Amino acid sequence: MSINALNEPEVFVVADNILSPLGKTTAENFAKLKENISGVREHSDPAISPLPFFASLFNKDEQFVKADEHNYTKFEQLLIASIADALNGSGVDVRDKKTVLVISSTKGNISLLENETISNELKHRISLSTSAKLIAEHFGFQNQPIVVSNACISGVLGVVTATRLLRSNQYENAVVAGADVISKFIMSGFESFKALSAGPCKPFDKEHDGLNLGEGAGTIILSTNHKYAQNIKVKGGSVSNDANHISGPSRTGQELADAIKNALTEANFTAGDIDFISAHGTATVYNDEMEANAIAISGLQKVPLNSLKGFYGHTLGAAGLIESIISIQSLKQALVIPTIGFTEAANPDKVNVFTAPIRLKANNFLKTASGFGGCNAAVIFGK
Amino acid sequence: MLTEKYITGFCSINNGIVAKDGVNIFAHENDLSGFLLSAYQHLQLTYPKFYKMDNLSKLGWLAAEFLLKDTFNKHEYQPEETGVILANANSSLDDDVKYWESIKDVASPSLFVYTLPNIVIGEICIRNNFKGEQALYIQPEFDAQFIAQQVNYLLDKNVMQSCICGWVDVFEQEYKAILFLVEKKKTDTSVVFSAENMDKIFNNNKLR
């Protein structure tokens, strides 16, 4: 253990929630994944895309909050519902000055731009700070919320940021929540990049040909309070930049490997301590290859690895949270979820992707994420 | 014992003026795009990527150029030892509006990629080969306390040895960038790295 770490409190996972098209609680979601049920299906919605597309979306008429809370946008409703469920019975007091709210999102309320021309009011309403403030006020958080918006690593970076706040004793509890909503703005952008698959995505498969988008929210509550000492912990986390290209990943994967190395160092682990990996695995050729390289550089090529994008699509700022929460369930239930959509490996020497659930008494897992701007993130959870 | 950290340089771009360490070094009256272009030309560089950037990236990239010039010795650090931790209020809204306008015709991937506020960090990292920690936070106003806490944590733990941190915000013709270079060494002009000192510098610039 390093000298610095001696003074640092451990960070425990108190409670969590996944709100997705597959279910409104973590338990509902994990049950669906165990049954191999995906939220991704074909949609025809001209409001989102002129052509049919595959994505994991909520039903249009789906309600997330009580009727008197409908002045919140869909993005905010998802966060409110997810946070409320995670808080329920957690024992964490949001009104305590020692509790902080961290919100992660890639595009937040961007869909508001689609129906109105820009004005000062709209500029204010669309701001992630406005949403964070509304959500903080809804629950009664006392501190100014922290907002992370760092492309597709936002969810993992939210956990990493919160962990650093707790480790340096700024707060005792952190409620980390992430969400994104899919609208024409986002869909058209990924279409323009030709990043979307024409069918259900196939992460790490020989025939991977693009991603599916997905909607959802995830919440993880963290605490340094020792009453949670038996819970799963955040062991370490780190972030890096490729310094290569704003819309293409590293050629080598070295920079994601650097983030993994730093996360392992913080956890006081070696590669051998990682029992399984929840990869970003968007199913774009560029992402999967870069990630496979990084996993191999890290000496993790034999470790069972999944991508959950086949179940959820790419849920952007929620992805890091949703996928971490499923993996936390895997630790608790000794059952690692396979990669739906995968049959034959594109990089069999670099990643160990599997097609059926694995019974595994795992102690620790690694979660990775990468995104536009050349950003990479890694976080390790463990018992 | 924790290492002392110092602000070894700072750069502001605001109200048509570029200032380095509190001294005005370039001024130009123009709209934002014209001002950013003339500031770029003032540097007498050849960096074609600059022309492709949105205004947020141009602003942050320029602030980093002026900040690092003659101050930062990149040979003192490994690429992964320097981090970039930024915040702003308007995210990428300036480019979001332009992208949304564009899709009425045909959606432009070159505009879409800038609809993420962290791309400015990517541009600074590409230019300087910085591969360390990075983060983009959205704040209603510059929260020096929070930024100082995150930067201190990473420097104290030796995850980073140096860091560019601060504020880069653009919406239409309103803009402001203030970047701080933080290192673990004292120089003739450095001040101790603290939220108070960042706030002082940030607010002085606001008055100018």
Structure keywords:
heterodimer; A: 383 residues; alpha/beta; Peroxisomal Thiolase, Chain A, domain 1; 2 domains; 11-stranded mixed sheet; 3-stranded mixed sheet; 11 helices; B: 208 residues; alpha+beta; 8-stranded mixed sheet; 8 strands
Question: How is this structure best summarized?
Answer:
The complex is a heterodimer of chains A (383) and B (208). Chain A is α/β, with parallel strands linked by helices and 383 residues long.
Describe this structure in words.
The complex is a heterodimer of chains A (383) and B (208). Chain A has 2 domains: 3-227, Peroxisomal Thiolase, Chain A, domain 1; 232-382, Thiolase/Chalcone synthase (Peroxisomal Thiolase, Chain A, domain 1). Chain A contains 11 helices and 16 strands. In chain A, a hairpin with a 3-residue loop joins β15 and β16 (375-382). The relative contact order of chain A is 0.18. In chain A, the strands form 3 sheets. In chain A, strands 5-4-6-8-1-9-16-15-10-11-13 form an 11-stranded mixed beta sheet, with helices on both faces. In chain A, α3 runs parallel beside α5, α6 (154-167) crosses α11 (319-333) and α8 (254-267) packs across α9. Chain A has 383 residues and is an alpha/beta fold. Chain B is an alpha+beta fold. Chain B has a single domain, classed as 3-Layer(aba) Sandwich (Peroxisomal Thiolase, Chain A, domain 1). Chain B has 8 helices and 8 strands. In chain B, strands 1, 2, 3, 4, 5, 6, 7 and 8 form an 8-stranded mixed beta sheet that branches. In chain B, β6 (162-171) and β7 form a beta hairpin. In chain B, α1 (32-42) runs parallel beside α3 and α3 (55-68) packs parallel to α6. The longest helix of chain B is centred in the first third of the chain and has 14 residues, at 55-68. Chain B starts with 5 loop residues before the first strand and ends with a helix. At the A-B interface, α5, β5, α6, α7 and β9 of A face α4, α6, β5 and α7 of B. β5 of chain A pairs antiparallel with β5 (134-138) of chain B, so a sheet runs across the interface.
